[in-house]
Design a protein that fits this description.
This protein is mainly beta. It has one domain. 6% of the residues lie in helices and 50% in strands. It contains 3 helices and 12 strands; from the N terminus they run ββαβααβββββββββ. The strands form 2 sheets. Strands 1, 4, 5, 6, 7, 10 and 11 form a 7-stranded mixed sheet that branches.
Length: 240
């Protein structure tokens, strides 16, 4: 039976903040999907419990200090697909959508911030035979969301209190913030297993060998967008 070997690419820890001097390019908004269709990688209706650990710098001064559950905060993060007809009826399509990355002046404000990373993370998988001969390379993509909680020091400057991270299989295009805990996101859906040019693949089987194998990869469908509602609630929060 063929088996799959996979490697997950490393992801950066922080999204790209847009500087105030950079003019914001209006996002490209195209028709919304009414339903999720089989040809796309499944859009998400899910919820995830995310955690973040934080402790004041004074505790880190002790070389024996270790983070524990007392320093853990948890949030329940939900994603819901919103059909185009529902968005129109509730006038959600008239919300002020903007690019999904954080601007510097927003990053420095206290509260919760939603920051989608601009670059996608790739996950290549090689399907092999039982004797580990490669058959096919497939590549899937995901985009990282950082839900950031910022607090303000007594001196007036802000700091990052918690960071909750999650990867999603869609391409974020624009975001409309309703409150700290609710945002609407317009995304490009992914078309899975789109053929790409074959690649010469290096593998090791009784020495180094090379073989040309077919490649398939995710591809953004930029002709349609899906509207997603993202929300969270705090389950537990560590003390200051």
């Amino acid at each position: 039976m063929p088996k799959a070997f996979h490697w997950v690419a490393g992801l950066p820890l922080l999204g790209a903040c847009q500087t105030p001097e950079t003019p914001e390019v209006p996002p490209r908004l195209v028709p919304l999907l009414e339903t999720t269709v089989p040809r796309y990688r499944p859009l998400l209706n899910r919820q995830d419990t995310l955690e973040s650990f934080w402790a004041p710098d004074s505790l880190y001064a002790d070389s024996l200090f270790q983070l524990s559950n007392a320093h853990r905060s948890q949030v329940l993060l939900r994603v819901r697909f919103v059909p185009a007809s529902v968005a129109a009826q509730a006038q959600l399509d008239t919300l002020r959508f903007r690019r999904p990355d954080l601007r510097l002046e927003e990053y420095e404000q206290p509260g919760y911030h939603w920051d989608f990373f601009a670059a996608a993370s790739s996950e290549p998988k090689v399907t092999e035979t039982a004797d580990r001969t490669p058959l096919r390379l497939s590549v899937t993509y995901s985009w990282r969301l950082a839900l950031l909680e910022h607090r303000r020091w007594p001196a007036g400057n802000s700091y990052e209190r918690n960071s909750y991270l999650m990867d999603y299989p869609f391409g974020p295009v624009a975001i409309a913030r309703v409150s700290d805990s609710v945002v609407y996101v317009r995304v490009y859906p992914l078309l899975p297993d789109r053929p790409r040019p074959d690649t010469l693949y290096t593998y090791f089987q009784n020495g180094e060998r090379r073989k040309r194998i077919p490649v398939v990869a995710d591809q953004l469908d930029t002709t349609r967008q899906a509207l997603l509602r993202l929300s969270f609630r705090v389950l537990s929060h560590s003390v200051d």
